[in-house]
Specification:
single chain, 456 residues, alpha/beta, Rossmann fold, 4-stranded parallel beta sheet, 8 strands, binds iron/sulfur cluster
Length: 456
């Protein structure tokens, strides 16, 4: 039994919070339902299904009403990171929904293991559960650095491999929806196709006994071809890159449905995937060895993982390039190289240098309009996001960046007005560029005409 503190996760006696941690045991695996919170619905749906292969009964939470925020505010201090407040709110709201037997429930939550507060979300969750009267519900930590061991839950290599493919599939669907939804002729066609694929892929990952590499790469190509076959309007739209703190960037609950708002305002959105975040995480472990001399063996393992993830990303890039006219992902190696002269690889709190790298990547690929989202009071991301805007704009004066903060009391109207202002600037620039391009063509045609030999 682990006696670490429910509040700070340390084994000390400095405060009165020290209580026993409730473990998720092997016996519980048989008849307990494990709830996981949402961030990226499609990715997580696939992960939920594949965990069934390993005997876990997992359910993805999709409750996202105001009640979720209210539950979070009730059991978590309002100064706490907004993503923690939302996820804890989502768990408690689900427990109290009457849908489950709380005595047969376990909660699964990720722990990054970094110096950021994300490592402390689990103790916060346990504290909230105790406050709400559910201290008997076991919490399982999903982490890759051995932070907490759980007897009834084991992250095995085959399971990790399936999870990796759930992430690549999810990223692929995200990339393709982003490039089709704003242009679809039949409203809802892109989402419907993505839903169909999510179902199919979840079944593939959750049912296929031997998951062959060839099946995965063939599936990428099949997905791309199906999206390329969607009838689409030929229009030019303002492109907006979304960067920021991972939860607020990806979760509609965290960002007040940012993507759909931008699409409804006539924009096309684009963003780096979850694979990039995984590679960022792996890079940090390698950098820690270089900078602080952490265990060499771990660094070797992470170097192998990095190469593997790069290869998986390249498979997706090849499929998009060879099967369609869609813009593929940018290789993470290139994204990473862009930070030279801006920020060091030691800046890894929150989304660290990745946030700056993603802004640079958008600018590098000609997407000058960027929304940088972060939870209100998220110090690490304010530094690598807002804090980097000045040096970024000095070298890229064309950058049109809006930084938007999110928390339970932020005004949606205020957020949307700022987004509209950014879009208005973007449209003015796009129209002016179009005018210059049209005039250049006209001048070139006139010059060509004057070169025609006279017939008389
Ligand atoms: S990145 Fe920001 S929001 Fe996330 S845990 Fe760290 S401080 Fe909190």
């Amino acid at each position: 039994m682990n006696n670490n503190c429910n509040t700070c996760n340390n084994n000390c006696t400095a405060c009165e919070q020290q209580t026993e941690r409730v473990q998720f045991t092997k016996e519980m695996k048989k008849d307990y339902t494990i709830l996981i919170p949402t961030m990226l619905t499609r990715h997580f749906k696939m992960i939920t299904k594949l965990m069934g292969v390993y005997g876990y009964n997992v359910e993805l939470l999709e409750n996202s009403s105001q009640e979720v925020i209210d539950s979070g505010l009730k059991y978590v201090h309002n100064d706490t990171c907004y993503p923690a407040l939302l996820v804890i709110g989502q768990f408690i709201n689900a427990i109290e929904s009457g849908k489950y037997d709380p005595h047969k429930l376990a909660l699964l939550f990720t722990q990054t293991g970094g110096g950021c507060r994300a490592s402390n979300y689990i103790p916060l969750l346990r504290k909230a559960l105790a406050k709400a009267g559910y201290s008997y519900i076991p919490v399982i930590s999903l982490n890759f650095v051995g932070m907490e061991k759980t007897p009834g839950f084991k992250l095995t290599l085959p399971m990790l491999r399936r999870m990796m493919y759930a992430v690549t599939y999810g990223d692929m669907l995200m990339l393709l929806i982003n490039q089709t939804k704003p242009y679809e002729i039949e409203p809802g066609a892109a989402e419907a196709l993505a839903n169909e694929w999510t179902e199919k892929l979840a079944n593939q990952l959750g049912k296929t006994k031997k998951l062959k590499y060839k099946l995965i790469t063939d599936t990428y190509r099949e997905i791309v071809r199906s999206f390329a076959a969607l009838p689409m309007k030929k229009e030019k739209k303002v492109k907006v890159g979304i960067v920021g703190e991972i939860f607020v960037k990806f979760s509609p609950l965290g960002n007040n449905d940012l993507e759909n708002f931008l699409i409804s305002e006539g924009a096309e959105t684009t963003m780096g995937g979850l694979v990039d975040f995984a590679m960022f995480y792996v890079c940090n472990e390698i950098a820690d060895n270089k900078l602080y001399g952490t265990k060499k063996i771990l660094s070797k393992v992470f170097k192998i993982a990095y190469k593997l993830l790069l290869k998986k990303q390249q498979d997706m890039i090849d499929a998009v390039r060879e099967e369609s006219d869609f813009r593929p992902f940018t290789s993470f190696e290139h994204t990473k190289s862009l930070i030279d002269g801006y920020i060091g690889i030691g800046a890894k709190m929150g989304e660290g240098w990745l946030l700056t790298a993603e802004m640079l990547e958008h600018l590098d690929s000609g997407v000058n309009n960027i929304v940088c989202v972060q939870p209100f009071g998220c110090l690490p991301n304010h530094i690598v996001g807002k804090g980097m805007m000045k040096p970024l704009k000095e070298k890229h004066p064309e950058a049109n960046i809006a930084a938007i903060d999110y928390d339970a009391s932020a005004s949606i109207v205020n957020q949307q007005n700022r987004l509209k202002l950014m879009l208005a600037n973007a449209r003015d620039i796009m129209n002016a560029e179009q005018e210059i391009a049209d005039n250049t063509v006209e001048v070139e045609n006139t010059v060509e005409d004057s070169k025609e030999p006279s017939l008389v």
